[in-house]
Design a protein that fits this description.
By secondary structure, the protein is mainly α. Helix content is 49%, strand content 9%. It is built from nine helices and six strands, in the order αββαββαααββαααα. It has helices at residues 2-11, 34-42, 61-66, 71-81, 89-92, 132-147, 152-169, 176-190, 198-211, and strands spanning 21-22, 32-33, 47-52, 55-60, 110-111, 118-119. Strands 1-2 form a two-stranded antiparallel sheet. Strands 3-4 form a two-stranded antiparallel ribbon. It has a two-stranded antiparallel ribbon with strand order 5-6.
Length: 212
């Protein structure tokens, strides 16, 4: 930002626009515009298609961004770049405690304080699994409460596990291998946190049992 400022002050942003790019290590040569990734994350777009070496790939927006900055840094960046983001997180996402959550057909539930935003889609509310949506919502809240007790690296991995679990369970036929890996990752992150991690372990176990 300091270096960019020297250019924009002398030439003006319109005359000399500065663009920040994110280059995922897994895809050498691929460049993604940082501001667009922030907007995708803000709007809840979890995956974006790109063409790489002649084939179409799908990138997890949050996973890509987690490799370069923390959710807290990105929240500040969005407030700077997008005027509508300047509203305080506490005003947009007040603290909540969920003792019982009932989700009926056609319901959408959004939970979070800028770290995690989980929308329970209509596809969760299936007659065969009526308890799936509220259980996943409660797990999301429990994971969010646990994040502040993890190291930065552990928190990033935990967010990625949760995001992958959320995405997998929105599919008509979730892949058991992938949701098992994600749930096991959440349980592992919670194991050494005592009372803080206990709700995550309990809810993850219930979710795994329900899916099985």
């Amino acid at each position: 930002d300091v270096i960019h400022k020297t250019f924009t002050e002398s030439a003006g942003k319109e005359a000399f626009p500065i663009t920040a790019w994110v280059c995922p290590p897994r895809y050498p040569g691929l460049r993604l515009e940082y501001e667009k990734l922030l907007a995708y994350e803000r709007d809840g777009i979890s995956q974006i298609p790109r063409t790489y070496q002649g084939r179409t790939i799908y990138l997890n927006v949050t996973a890509v961004l987690n490799g370069f900055s923390t959710p807290e840094v990105r929240a500040e960046e969005r407030r700077r770049l997008f005027p509508e983001e300047r509203m305080k997180d506490e005003e947009k996402y007040p603290s909540i405690r969920i003792d019982r959550l009932e989700v009926g057909p056609g319901s959408n539930v959004t939970i979070g304080k800028g770290n995690i935003r989980q929308t329970i889609q209509n596809s969760f509310n299936t007659p065969s699994n009526p308890d799936l949506a509220p259980l996943l919502a409660q797990l999301t809240v429990a994971v969010e409460a646990m994040l502040q007790h993890l190291s930065e690296e552990q928190a990033a991995e935990t967010r990625e596990d949760l995001a992958r679990l959320q995405e997998e369970l929105q599919k008509p036929k979730p892949n058991r291998k992938w949701y098992n890996v994600s749930i096991e990752g959440l349980i592992k992150a919670a194991e050494n946190l005592g009372k803080v991690g206990a709700p995550v372990i309990e809810l993850a176990g219930k979710l795994l049992k329900l899916l099985s």
